[in-house]
Amino acid sequence: MYRVIAMSAEESKGKKLLEQAKANWDMYYVLTQELLKFIDKQDIDQFLEIEKQRYIIVERMQALPETEDYRNTEECQALIAKIKPLDMQIIYKAKAWLNKSRQQNATVHAYELKGMNMLGNMLNKKS
Would you list the domain boundaries of the chain? Predict the structure, then answer.
């Protein structure tokens, strides 16, 4: 036997907004997994693109008051528990990549000859 439950327009709207909050959190989780995948591949351009997408999701979450209602559910807390370690890995790997990039940049600049062309000076000397 099916039971029909009548909802007011307000309750229906609130339920849809709560579903949107859940969808935002789910998308945030998926994008977080993708960030980790692309930083492991060292595809920094794609990593940065996905980070932009995740930032847009965060803005949506902040604009939706129901996000906090959903955040207080056990389902969301379990999702947050999955996201936190991924975020920590991303932060660690991003810092490691940045440090490696800085070291490579410093090495390249160490070989630059600033202010003079040493070879040209040696060839221009008269014997």
Answer: 16-104
